[in-house]
Amino acid sequence: MKNENELKEIVREKYSQIALNEKEVNAASCCGATPTSEEVYNVMSDDYTDLDGYAQDADLGLGCGLPTEFAQISKGDTVVDLGSGAGNDCFIARHETGPEGKIIGIDFTEAMITRARINADKLGFNNVEFRSGDIENMPISENTADVIVSNCVLNLVPNKEGVINDTLRVLKPGGHFSISDIVLIGDLPNELREDAEMYAGCVSGAIQKSEYMGLIEKAGFENITIQKEKAIRIPSDILLKYMDADKVAQFNQGKTGIYSVTVYGEKPGQKKPKIKMTELAGEEACCGPDCC
After folding, report:
1. Are 86 and 116 contacting, i.e. CB atoms less than 8 angstroms apart?
2. Distance (Å, rounded) from C-alpha 93 to C-alpha 84?
3. Residue 28 CA to chain centroid, in angstroms?
4. CA-CA distances (angstroms) from residue 14 to 11, 119, 131, 190, 204?
5. What does 263-277 look like in DSSP terms, one character per residue?
6. What phi and psi, each to the nearest 5 degrees, are found at residue 3?
7. Cβ atoms 60, 84 nearer than 8 A
8. Domains in the chain and their CATH numbers?
9. Confidence (pTM)
10. Which of 39, 31, 30 lies closest to 60, judged by CA?
11. Long-range CB contact pairs, 34-37, < 8 A, 24+
12. Are 149 and 63 in contact (CB under 8 A)?
């Protein structure tokens, strides 16, 4: 496999192309990066369409979970989305925070940033912004976010420990994350592990589940919980692009498991109560016929 900088450029180039794809193409492949399957439509992605705040133009079919569904977002929260793509999770998070909240999406692919900003403008959301940057070194000050979400992105980053450590930095004390990603139990065949398409396709960049959970614990998060787990099956017609039929059969009958996990964790500390504007002005907060 290539070095860290080469891998990042592979992902950047591939996701610049994926930004122009239709959802159906991405969903029928491994994160839009591999050949499409005739066997399975949703290879990895979950269905967002019933979630409040869903924006069809922002759904590229690239996720492997529904982290915003589990993220316990409250009104007025500041939410950061790692690898925000065309903005799908940001817009769902914005529905939960309301106009008084703040949503920041981070992506290192300019084509995705451009598409997300266009979608935000169409929706008229002035409290959703998209910043260009690496998620292992976020362009955000420390102790900023109440909640951090991410959907099928950490597996694309060679420095996963850096992302998890920076997540801790950016969260406020008492803040939490809910992140969906791909993990492994067992070893991938060399043909999949060393292929650049499979790396950009969220497969060969995935690490062992035990290692993934260990990095989160090592960073210092508390109350770590797996909120959802599901098995991912790569269709045989995709696998046959990389291996012969005998190896595909061995892989399908073997003990290697590919899983989507949605993990929750909290940053140690006491969360500060949100201050209302009336309190800042020295007025008594109220809600009745003569105020609010």
Report:
1. yes
2. 11
3. 19
4. 5, 21, 19, 21, 15
5. EEEE-SSPPPPPPPH
6. -75, 175
7. no
8. 4-270 (3.40.50.150)
9. 0.91
10. 31
11. 34/197, 34/198, 34/201, 34/238, 34/241, 35/237, 35/238, 35/241, 36/238, 37/235, 37/237, 37/238
12. no
Residue 91: HSE in the Cβ half-sphere, 13 Å Cα cutoff: 25
Which amino acid is present at 128?
Answer: V
List the chain pLDDT tens, one digit each, 292 residues: 578 888 999 999 999 999 988 898 899 999 989 999 998 888 998 888 889 999 999 999 999 999 999 999 999 999 999 999 999 999 999 999 999 999 999 999 999 999 999 999 999 999 999 999 999 999 999 999 999 999 999 999 999 999 999 999 999 999 999 999 999 999 999 999 999 999 999 999 999 999 999 999 999 999 999 999 999 999 999 999 999 999 999 999 999 999 999 999 999 998 877 665 444 444 444 444 454 4
- Other CB atoms within a 10 A radius of the CB of residue 146 amount to 24
Tokens describing residue 66: 């529904």
> Which residues lie across from 93 on neighbouring strands?
none
Runs of H (alpha helix) within 124-276 = 160-170, 190-193, 196-200, 209-219, 236-239, 245-253
Q: Which is nearest to 142 in space by CA: 94, 66, 186, 78? A: 78
